[in-house]
TrEMBL record:
Pfam families: THR4_C. It comes from the Eukaryota. This is Putative threonine synthase-like 1-like. Transmembrane segments: none annotated. One of its GO terms (cellular component) is cytoplasm. InterPro entries: TrpB-like_PALP_sf (IPR036052). Signal peptide: none annotated.
Length: 376
């Protein structure tokens, strides 16, 4: 299932072309603050940039300065608009997102923004339910495609394999279908699939809420323990529900396996995978059964990650270049499937207009948000 044919070559375009229109209809004056592991930021900026010139919505995007691809960074930092601010953070995605969640929870910060600027903050990533709802649709659509093609009958089961980081896309699949979590000794492992490089998934909380039948107090206790101690453990009956009722299986692959899958699939079929889809393909091959078909959710175009895909194909990288256009051009010449995304090619040629990088503590991020609001 190719979900990357939107303007920024990411599955997130499906929701973020719709959500800005909902924002504009629903609010009077509200900035949107976004932490992104790579793809969300550019999709947010593209979607919100299409609002009318007198829109009351402005967008601020925070991204890990060293945790995304050169093309992802180019897509965000080249957006030239008075209603947009893009800031790099000297940390990983988890530190960005944790700081934003803390700001949203801070009564003093939110009261100050309301009193001084009559502004209320909102989020545009999958913290926001408006991001998840449109994604439910394409999972249902993929199932109906299999029915129309005669692969399965209506009501038959199929499997879905989704590369997940913040757990939003996979949770949308669970909505369409309607252990131990320990961070104490874990460090974020940076990979060639930056959207997966997340320790604290926002939508895990929603998923457990679904699994427990909406037991809010229990979920609150677990996540307070995670925030305080870095660990929580769900009861065995909840694990059994996840395994037996929801049929959730988690798996992973190494960087070497990911690269090998990109190389093998391209050699055998001429189809070029991005690193995230390669993770899903590797796991899907491992978990597939003859009893039912498997839908692999392809979440991004290979052109978003040209350096890593070129390395996987064992191609020589062009001379170092800040705009990465050389390596993109090389991939354009070696692949016909899927078709090349022209928007990526033009984005990397634009000048970078956002150059700010700050530390990842809440105080600095709050200061930037307040400055952004004051400039409105």
């Amino acid at each position: 299932m190719e979900t990357f044919h939107g303007p920024t070559a990411s599955f997130k375009d499906a929701a973020l072309q719709i959500m800005p229109q909902l924002f504009e209809q629903a609010i009077t004056k509200e900035p949107t603050v976004q932490a992104t592991s790579g793809d969300t930021g550019s999709a947010v900026l593209d979607g919100f940039s299409k609002l009318s010139g007198n829109s009351n919505v402005r967008v601020m995007v925070l991204y890990p300065e060293h945790g995304i691809s050169s093309v992802q960074k180019a897509l965000m930092t080249s957006v030239d608009s008075d209603s947009v601010k893009v800031i790099g953070v000297d940390g990983d995605f988890d530190s960005c997102q944790s700081a934003i969640k803390a700001i949203f929870r801070s009564q003093s910060v939110n009261e100050r923004l309301m009193d001084a600027y009559n502004i209320k903050l909102s989020a545009a990533n999958s913290i926001n339910w408006g991001r998840l709802l449109p994604q439910v649709v394409y999972h249902a659509s993929a199932y109906l495609d299999l029915v129309r093609q005669g692969v399965i009958g209506m009501g038959d089961e199929c499997d879905v394999c989704i590369p997940t980081g913040n757990f939003g896309n996979i949770l949308a699949a669970f909505y369409a279908r309607t252990g131990i979590y320990d961070l104490r000794q874990r460090k974020l492992q940076v990979s060639t699939s930056p959207a997966i490089d997340i320790l604290k998934s926002s939508n895990l909380e929603r998923f457990l809420h679904l699994v427990t039948g909406g037991d809010g107090p229990m979920i609150k206790t677990w996540f307070e323990g995670l925030h305080k101690d870095g660990i929580f453990k769900v009861p065995n009956e909840v694990l059994e529900t996840i395994s037996n009722k929801f049929n959730l299986v988690s798996d992973w692959c190494s960087e070497e396996q990911c690269a090998k899958t990109i190389r093998t699939v391209f050699k055998e079929t001429g189809y070029l995978l991005d690193p995230h889809t390669s993770v899903a393909k590797t796991v899907a091959d491992r978990q597939a059964t003859s009893e039912r078909p498997m839908i692999i959710c392809s979440t991004a175009h290979y052109g978003k990650f040209p350096e890593d895909v070129s390395r996987a194909l064992q191609l020589p990288l062009p001379a170092e270049s800040d705009d990465c256009s050389g390596v993109l051009q090389q991939l354009k010449t070696v692949s016909a499937l899927p078709s090349f995304n022209q928007g990526l090619e033009s984005a990397v040629k634009k000048p970078r207009v956002h150059n700010s990088v700050i530390s990842d503590d809440m105080k600095n991020i709050t200061r930037e948000i307040e400055t952004f609001c004051a400039e409105w």
